[in-house]
Structures are given as C-alpha cells and as structure tokens.
Amino acid sequence: MIGKTVAIAALAIFLIYSTSWAFGGGGGGGVGVPSSFLMPSPPRDIKAIAGNGKATVNFVPPKTDGGKPVLYYTVISHPGGIKVKGTESPIDVKGLTNGKTYTFTVTASNSVGTGPASDRSNCVTPGQ
Description:
Blueprint: H1 2-22, E1 44-50, E2 54-60, E3 72-78, E4 83-86, E5 91-94, E6 103-109
Antiparallel strand pairs: 1-2, 2-5, 3-4, 3-6
C-alpha cells in the first residue's frame, strides 16, 4: 500500500512539472495556457495583384487575434523570401523580378508572438 501511494505521488509530481513545462507555465506547479492559443490565427483570403517589379497583397484579418491585438502583418514572397511588414491590408512587396512568378503568404503577430502562415496566394508575374 505504501509503495502504491509513493508511486501515485511521484506520478502526480511528474505530471505537474512536465505539464507546466509543456504549456509554458514556468515549472513548479499550475498549468498555463499554451502560447500557440494566444497567437493570432492565419490571415485569410490572400490575393495578390502584379505590378511593375512589385505585387500588392490583399488579405482579410485572422478569425481570432488570440486575445491580444494584432500589431503587424508580414507578407513573405515565394520564391525569394522577401518579407514586408505592415499594419493593415493591402501590403506592397517591392523588389520582385519582372517575368518571374510569385505567390505570397501572410502571418499576423501580436505581443505573444507570430501565428501560423496563411495559405498561399494566387500566382502573379510582375511586369505583365
């Protein structure tokens, strides 16, 4: 009986510490909220329009901001990985190569962190 009680107590202590660590609770008791739940969801309806050496990327804000306001959005070009930040839609991505085809993803960031990337936009070819 004593062995069983010790085993249960040891398991309880392990679960408290491992759960706190896994959920960002800082260790030592209590379970925090996973930080991924506090970050914005992906922006939606990503649409790009080609220009001369640039693209204008339009999007709809995320369904949820994770409980903290979105501070900025980041548009990322594919290929090239050009990153441009802005506080609202649309965002212009400059420095693209005319005649080359691009897609774009968008992330939203709040004071907790950056949420997952959106689906890719439509394909655009600047300069055409």
